[in-house]
Fold:
Amino acid sequence: MAKNRKNQAAAIRFGPALKASFFILLIGGSAVGFVWQKNQIDQLGLQIASREKQVFQYKRDNQKLKIQVSDLQSPVRLDQRVKGLNLGLAPAQPTQVVHLGELAPAAESNGPRQFAQRPAADLTP
Structure:
């Protein structure tokens, strides 16, 4: 004899519907997460490309500035600028130059280098 559906428990009647809705939510949530991650990857790719362009621009500007600094530091350019500004500067005369000799390094002792030594009075027992 077949059982009457009205007498069945509510969990048995709604069980398959709950399982189906759970799987639909699981698959839908996974799809939304996948799309969100792809969107994040695209945004990060755009940021990386933008920053690489900035780095390239900075390197190019740095190279231009290095050339400009080397040009401004050249002796010929400095002489032209001094003459143009009427500063009255001239190269030093040989009598104005003082040459300092470099001292020879101190000779090493035979033993290892000693940083501190006891006075002679402390060495006797």
DSSP finds three helices and no strands in the chain.
